[in-house]
Amino acid sequence: MNCNNVRENLIELLAEGPADAGITAHVKECSACSQELESLRKTMALLDEWEVPETSPYFLTRLQAHIKEERNKAPHGLFAWLRRPIAAVSLAAVIAGGAVFYQLRTTDKIIATPPPAPAGTAVGDLEALEKNHDLYVNTDLIDEITGGPSSDTSEDSI
Fold first, then answer.
1. Helix axis angle, 31-49 relative to 21-29, nearest 10°?
2. Which of 133, 132, 151, 131 has its CA nearest to residue 141?
3. What are phi and psi of 27, to 5 degrees?
4. CA atoms of 119 and 117, how far apart (whole Å)
5. Distance in angstroms (rounded) separating the CA atoms of residues 50 and 54
6. pLDDT digits over 125-146, tens only?
7. What pTM, to 2 d.p., does this model score?
8. Which among 1, 2, 22 is positioned nearest to 12, based on CA atoms?
9. Which of 50, 4, 39, 42 minimizes the C-alpha distance to 23?
10. b/e map of 101-123 (b: 16 or more CB within 10 Å)?
């Protein structure tokens, strides 16, 4: 067996359970692997003797005081939120989106709105007549102001 493979499986020998016969035979023959096994046994013995130190009775109080101090160190004010990366990136995205929307709305090349036809041409005259016709037909407001008849009240209902 290879020493690297045996070193990966030395913990099986420390568990004192059924270990692979090849690993046990290799450790008996190889002095480097047997020294490694003995070193692991000593380390485990030291860990068994080690006791966890008692925490200070004021540990939580001091921890809460440190947390409160750190919160008080946080910047306050009008632009303090800019120090948070998520807020700053969100603001930048909103501004960029607004700029793109404004550019799309104001550019005739991207959102095609036909320019008005020049006066004196057949199309221009027809458009002017349509505008005037819409004004003449929709005179309800003018009739109500002047006291004239309105199309929203019928003569039959009076």
1. 110
2. 151
3. -65, -35
4. 6
5. 12
6. 888 777 776 666 666 666 667 7
7. 0.35
8. 22
9. 4
10. eeeeeeeeeeeeeeeeeeeeeee
